[in-house]
Amino acid sequence: MDQKLIFLDIDGTLTEPGKNVPPPSAADAVRRAREKGHKVVLCSGRNYGMLFPVLQFGFDGLIASAGGYIEYGGQVVYDCPMTPKQQAEVLDVFKENGIYRTIGGRNSSYTDEGFKEFLAENIQSEGNSELLRWRIQIENELDIRPMSEYDGEPIYGMSFMSRGAERLKKPMELLQEEFEFCIQDEDTCGIVNGELSSKAFDKGSAVKRLCEFLGISREDTIAFGDSMNDFQMLQAAGIGVCMANGSPALLEIADMVCPSVAEDGLYSAFETLKLL
Asked: Are 33 and 269 in contact (CB under 8 A)?
C-alpha cells in the first residue's frame, strides 16, 4: 500500500472526550501504522500546549488550534494567531453578551470564572457531548486556567457556551467577516456551544497546507474525526472517517463510519483501511 498521511482528531476520536491517554488499541494502531511507513499527524482544536500529554504516544507532526498552528518534524509550517485588534474585539463582544469563553493561546488556555459552576448547574444535560467534554476537561486532566490569569498572550481560537442562541446574534453579526462560527447542536436545555476560528484557517486548510509542504497528494490522506470542527478536515482528505459517536452532520458526509473510540474504533478502522 502506498504511504498515507493520516490526520487524527483527539477528543472523541483518538481519546475519550477530555482524556489525554488513548485506549491501548488506538495507541497500538498509531504505532503499527507508522512502522508500516505511514505518517500520522494530530489535528486538534486544542492549543499547542495541550497537545504535549498526547504527543508522547508518537506522531510525525501536529496541527493545533484547529489549523492555526502547524508543525512537522519539529519545523513550524504555519503560525497564525489573532491580531491584537481581533483579540480585543472578540473578547469584548462575547463578554458583553454574557457568553462563557474559553480562549486558547499557543501554550495555555483560560476560561471565564463561573463557567465551572455553570456546567455543574446543567449537569443533567449530558446529552450534549460538548458540555460533558468541557466538564471533564476543566475538572480533571486539562490545565485550563481562570481568565483572571490571562496576560495577553496571542489567541488562536475560542470555544464558547451560551444560554440559548439569542445571545450569539450580536457576536455573529459583528465578527462574521473575519471569523467562522462552528456551532454544535443545541441541547434539550437550550445550551448552545461551539468554536470561533479565523477564516484564515480551519482543519481542512491545514490538511491542504501540510500536503503542499510535504509534496503529498490529498488522495493519499485519511482523516478521522467526530465533531463539527472536523467537517472541513474530512472533506479535504482523500478518505474521511467519522467515529460512530460523531455529530449527525459529520456522519452524513463521511466516506466511512467506524465504532466509537471506546469500542476500539480507531484500531478497527486502521485494520479495515489496511494501514496495519
From this structure: no
Asked if 199 and 178 count as a contact pair (C-beta separation under 8 A), the reply is yes
List, for residues 146-170, the tens digit of each pLDDT value: 899 999 899 999 989 888 888 999 9
Judge contact between 193 and 131, C-beta under 8 A. Answer: yes
Question: How distant, in Å, are the alpha carbons of 73, 109, 155, 156 from that of 152?
Answer: 29, 11, 8, 12
Q: Which domains does the chain have, with CATH numbers?
A: 5-80+201-272 (3.40.50.1000), 84-198 (3.30.1240.10)
